Fold Ribosomal RNA small subunit methyltransferase G.
Amino acid sequence: MEPEDLESRTPTAVRTVFGEHAESAAEFVAMLASHGVERGLIGPREVDRLWDRHVLNSAVLAELIPEGARVVDVGSGAGFPGIPLAIARPDLDIVLLEPMARRVEWLTEVVETLALSVSVERGRAEEKVVRRRIDVADVVTARAVAPLARLAQWCLPLVKPSGELLALKGQTAAEEIERDRSAVRKAGGGDPRIVRCGAAVLETPTTVIAIERVESGAPGVARKRGRKKH
């Protein structure tokens, strides 16, 4: 995609969501449209839908995140939702957690190119050594990573007590909640609820399942860490 074509396809919502950081968001989209496709991070058919389906869809999650929060984005992949969040909300302390080396390399390049204050870590959320290394966060995000039951088991141990897991989901969100409600509670989560983000700027708002961390998965460990100041 040529720069002039990219500019002509930029939705007016971009300025609303990203404000003074809109140019950085456009640069990220340009990187995805070229290098992202070449490296197999996104499919060619996704290029025309990068803004609405991926970048803006991820960035509006910022509506649910408190100022200055520490955020761990699990399974960042091509950078969603962590990179758009970091662009829109530079006040956040964001860690991108990704197990695949080639994606970690890509995320590191994006962070350096856009001069984002973001940490990139390689690993899986379910690994105890990874949990110890990155510690707990106020908010854990995930997009297209796993079904809700597995996601809660992997991610809730990374959430501080009273913090939240925010899982970006699609039309099956309500079905996932009904199916996996007991598994979520077993993993230390409260009652899952559905939240819609970006209704004022997106034709199709982002569907999020929000789960509060109410219990510690490992007795005496998560709560102790939850009092740690960052």
